[in-house]
Design brief:
The chain is α+β, with helices and mostly antiparallel strands. 31% of the residues lie in helices and 43% in strands. The protein has helices spanning 3-17, 56-63, 80-83, 98-111, 116-120; strands at 20-27, 30-40, 46-52, 66-72, 85-95, 124-138, 142-147. It has a six-stranded antiparallel barrel. The radius of gyration is 15 Å and the shape is globular.
Amino acid sequence: MTETDQTRKRLRDLFDNQQLAVLSTHKDGKAYASLVAFTATEDLRELLFATARSTRKFDNLTAKPHVAMLIDSRTNSIADFHEAVAVTATGTAEEVSEGARNVLQEQYLQKHPYMTDFVTAPTCALVRVKVDCYYLVSRFQNVVELHIGH
């Protein structure tokens, strides 16, 4: 297995086992962070989350679509200093178009079925982050970069 394949497997395992990510947006020179329930597409090219269109995060990413998402395995224990991994995904966010929404919404709801009412509401946007790069950090200093081509 190549290093790239190993990194993809580590990412897939992490994404399959974590429900939440921290989304970082910015607007007017001010940064903003939010917890979002997320999922990744099978090819890892995109991360998906849902949000009401009335939120600050949606306003921010509509104005400035460059975002970062942090997904980690911490358990808030001392063992995290040696065992936790974290990945930062950087990319461009956009609301999923109506044409692609059904397939991606179904994939999102497979991981988060309890969010059906929220995600299917007309006020909810399904957002995709087209990932440019993943930065996978383990042991607080071992960093592996995986660049994603679109």
